[in-house]
Specification:
Blueprint: E1 7-23, E2 30-42, E3 45-58, E4 65-67, E5 72-73
Antiparallel strand pairs: 1-2, 1-5, 2-3, 3-4
Length: about 110
Amino acid sequence: MFFFFVGGVRQRVSEILERDIAKCLRCGCPANMVTYDNVLEIFFIPVWRWPGKGNALHCENCGFLIPHGHFLPSTKDKSSSLPPAPRSFCWSCSRNLEPSFKFCPDCGARQDM
């Protein structure tokens, strides 16, 4: 008997809280502060939905979603209350890294952004 499972958990934006609040780490375009839901999908059909933890940053250009606190504030608003994010973490998997690393040892993402 062979069983093939196609599915997984994905994050989907549920509400945009503030537009153009920061810069996307992946593509550099303006990104929005959003709330998001985690969605369990089986064969690309949503089966179960539950709210994500806290807010996140979502780029409409590339679709990148990253939890709050792991991104740079926008250059549009100099009086932003968000502190600049430290660059000692992987932009892809959020693992702590040494500043001299060019690639993440955990996920292999290039760190020369």
